[in-house]
Each structure stands twice: as structure tokens, then as C-alpha cells.
Amino acid sequence: MTRLQVLWRLSWPAIIEQVLGTMVSYVDTAMVGVMGAAGTAAVSVNAAPIWLVQGILVGVGVGYSVQVSNAVGAGDRERVKRVIRQGFLAALVCGLLVCAIYEALGGYIPRWLGAKPDVLPHAVSYMRIYCAALPLGSMLAVFSAILRCMGNTKTPLIFNTAANLLNIVLNFFLIYPTGEFLGITIPRAGMGVEGAALASAIALAAAGAGTAWAAFRQVGYETSFRDGLAPDAGIISRAARLALPSAAERATVNLGQIAMTALVARLSTVALAAHQIANTAEGLCYLPAYGIGYAAIALVGQSVGAREKADAKAYGNLTGGIGFLLCLVTGTALFLFAPPLASLFNSDAGVVAQAAMALRIVAFSEPLFAVSIILTNALRGADDVRFPMIVGLVCMWLVRVPLACLLVLKLDWGLAGIWTAMAIDLTLRGVLCTVRWKRGKWLRLSGLEE
Predict the structure, then answer these.
(1) Which residues, other chains included, contact 439 with Cβ-Cβ below 8 Å and sequence gap of 6+?
(2) Which of 88, 392, 404, 437 could covalently link to 249 via disulfide, CB atoms 3.0 to 4.6 Å apart?
(3) What is the per-residue pLDDT across 362-393, written as a single tens digit (0 to 9) for each?
(4) Does residue 450 lie in a domain region?
């Protein structure tokens, strides 16, 4: 099997997973958007804090999934099983911790982010309901990563897709009041924004539990709690070394997004709703990059474990190049079809116009943003985890945030200033990650070159 065939075998389920997940996210946003700008804003103001939690959990997943990919490449089945069990402990502890923190701060975070009085009560309820699912939801982030690094990208596809579809069904019954559908009276809860939060929480918890079960039953690597759950200092230590920079990188980016949300909230409820819609719609553009990135971390990590230097280099080059080309196409489509895409999620003409403007600004950065997504994963697979953290810190806090503040607060660019700063940030990430990969310092860090 050629490298391209191997890449395709691992990538296509992950790409489909991202496409389906985003399509369902579109439906979710549109279902909330029926309640108007205030409903969309109540979800939007919580988006960045939730991304922060998800980013931290993804970082935890890196700590254990990279170890799994190395052990698979080295043919060490027993170590794979040990890492899976340790991953369960880490996911549970981290999930409980972030749940406790967010439940305690749930009444304050939306207010800190500038939620307007008509938005605040619903935003607080959304935060607390959603975060109650994090102890099980953490399993989804960690074990999806572990399964992908074992070469199984189909199971995360199944569980993530099922969760998204369940979310839509529950939205239908929980958001809207009792009414007729296709001529039949359907009893429904009429919970509004709170219903959207409950639907997401139930779907997240169910998918997390299912994904953890699937990892424990992975063919050839079956394990159980009876095999031992005592903390393993060696695995935890290496997980921390891998996970902390990755989690810090995601936290750095997400904290910057929180700052951006607070800056947008200063503008208007319409701008905040448009910002959320544009973020949701933009996800369509870089979906292939995340799917390919999942394959990159698995293939580079397995090549490192097998001590195959040529394969590691080839997979990084191949994945980055393909991601650039694919997102060049999707970025062009995003620019051309921005207005109709934005109109899918909200009927407010002002919201649609601002969201479309934001999408056209960011479209130019998508090809290099795709490269940064993929090569960040490739670098992590090769144990080069600190560089992505540095890139995230520099680009977010020394480029995007200061530039956005200048454009919005001093030059009065409004939402356009936020998205212009974002586009420059994403472009710079791609350039820096490409230079890092080509220079090859990761070869020494992974032990492939003395």
C-alpha cells in the first residue's frame, strides 16, 4: 500500500466526521437562530469558554494518543493497553475538575464576557447545563484521539456522528414548544436556549461513554479495568510532557478567542450573533485539514515508533501539501458563497450581512491555516510539542489581540477589524509551522536523528 493510500484510508473517515459534525452544527445554530439574535448570542457568548475546555481536553488526548501511536509503531501491544487505561483515569480526573470549575464560575463567565441583560440569564443556564456533561464528555476528546492513533478513524466517526444526530433530535423536542409538524401535534418541552444546552449535554455524555467503551474493546488491544487502574508514573510523566504544551497552546488560543468574544460583545448583540455564525460557517472551510491532521499525528507518530525517518518526513510533507490544496478550493468557495451560507443560520439581514463580510475576509487565510493545523499535528507526533505552543502564544497575543484592539477601538473597523486580525494571525501560523517542519528540528527531538 502506497503512502497516499495509507493516508486516504485514515483520512476519509475523519474528514467525513468533520463534515457531518459541521453540518449538524449548522442545523444546531439555525435551530437556535430561530429565536432571534438574543438566542444566538446566548450560545455565542459561551462558545469561546467551551472551546477552551475542549482545547484542554484535546491536549490531554495528545498526551496519551501520541504514546499509543509510538507503541503501535513499535509493536508493543501491552504498552498500548496500559496507556488506554491510564487515559481513562486522566480523562475522568480532568473532566471532573473542569466541570467543577465551570459550574462554580458559570454565573460569572457570560457577564465577564459582556453578555447584554437580555442575553445573560439564558447564557448562564446554557453554561451550567452543558458543563454538567464534561466528566463523560472528556472521554470523547481523549479516546477519539487514542483510537485515531491506533489507526481506527471509523469508530470516532460513528460516535461523533451519532452524537451530532442525537443533538438535532433532542433540539427538536427540547427547544421548541408543542406544535404541529407534518400535520401531527408533537408534544415538546419549549425550553429554548436551555433546551439546546440540555440536548448538547446528553449527546456529549453518551458519545463520550461510547467512545471509551470502544477503545477498551479495540480488536487486538482489548483491555479492562481488571487489568489494573493504578497510576503509572512513567506514562503519566510522559503524558504530562506531551499534553501540557498542547493544552497550553489550545488554552492560549481559546483565551484569545474569549478576549475576541468580549471585544465583539462591546459592539452589539447583532455583531455577536454574526460573529458566532461566521465562526460556525468558517468551520466548513478547514474541515479537510482536521481530518488530514488526525491522520498526520497517527502516521508520523507510528513512523517515529518504528524508527522510520523517511516515512515520518514523507507523511508530514504529503499531508501538509494536500491540506493546502484542498483548503485553497474550500476557501475560494467560502468567499464566493458567503452571503447564502450566512443566511442559512439567521433571518436578520444585519446579522447575515456582517457574517458574510467576516467570512470573505478570512477566506484568504484558509490554505495556510490548513497547513498550520496539519503540521502542528505532525510535529506533535514527532514529540515537537513546544513549538506549536509558542506559535499559538505569539500569533494570538502578540498579533491577533493587539491588532484587533487597534482596529476596533482606535480605527473603528467594527467586526471587520476582528476578522482582519484573525486572518493575519492564521496566515502567520501556516508560515511558521512550514518553516519549522522543513528545518527538521523535530528529527532530533523524536530521536530519529542524533
Answers:
(1) none
(2) 392
(3) 999 999 999 999 999 999 999 999 999 999 99
(4) no
